[in-house]
Write a structure and sequence with these properties.
- With about 210 residues, the protein is an alpha+beta fold.
- The protein has a single domain, classed as Alpha-D-Glucose-1,6-Bisphosphate, Chain A, domain 4 (2-Layer Sandwich).
- It contains 7 helices and 8 strands; from the N terminus they run ββααββββββααααα.
- Strand 3 and strand 4 form a beta hairpin.
- Helix 5 packs across helix 6.
Length: about 210
């Protein structure tokens, strides 16, 4: 299987800022992959390869094009600077947020940094007060993990059933809880109260583990 050393995101930041004239919260995750920037760019922008680690995607994957992730978000590609950066809107249900991805060559491979930018509006506040950054962050942890597994396997697809079975296992639930707690730590570093951040992490872990976090 190869999940014994499961790794999602390595570096996490939570911050508040202004984006397009709006007050926003930003969840940032980064990880270095042991491959060249051109290969990593292709792995995250080529529809055939995306389906091997993230899920089927349709649409026009080019500047100004619209994409649709099967059973997930859709949106518009608003920036495309191969092989180092792209931006897109992330439209899910009635909510619109923004995702920015950057690639940088580093000593031991290519560093991928993803920023998910969410408006601080009434619709999002109740969700944030319950889960904090973990709901978004843990979701991306799974994407970073799937990408790493795919690259480590030399381009072999990560089967959805296999991945879901692992997430439901004690090992998978322990991974999800570690990720939720790691986002709690990043939240505390941003200035959140420790008890509030911990409670949010517990709710996030419970959500991802189907109500069972122990």
């Amino acid at each position: 299987m190869g999940y014994s050393n499961a790794l999602g995101i390595e570096y996490r930041v939570v911050k508040e800022a202004e984006y397009q004239g709006k007050a926003v919260r930003i969840v940032i995750g980064a990880r270095t992959y042991e491959t060249e920037v051109e290969d990593l760019w292709d792995a995250i922008t080529n529809a055939e390869r995306i389906s091997c680690w993230f899920g089927p995607v349709g649409g026009e994957l080019k500047l100004g094009g619209r994409y649709q992730l099967e059973g997930n978000a859709s949106g518009e590609i608003t920036r495309c600077d191969p092989p180092t950066a792209f931006d897109l809107t992330w439209e899910f249900g009635n909510n619109v947020s923004w995702v920015s991805v950057q690639l940088e060559t580093v000593t031991d491979g290519t560093r991928l940094t993803l920023e998910h930018i969410m408006e601080k509006d009434e619709a999002s506040e109740a969700h944030w007060r319950t889960y904090g950054p973990g709901a978004t962050g843990v979701g991306w942890e799974l994407g970073f993990l799937g990408l790493g597994m795919y690259l480590d396997r030399g381009g072999e697809a990560v089967a959805e059933e296999e991945f879901n079975d692992w997430m439901a296992s004690p090992e998978g639930k322990a991974f999800l809880k570690r990720c939720a707690n790691a986002w709690s730590e990043a939240h505390i570093e941003s200035g959140e109260d420790t008890a509030i951040a911990a409670a949010m992490a517990e709710e996030t872990a419970s959500f991802y583990c189907g109500g069972h976090t122990h």
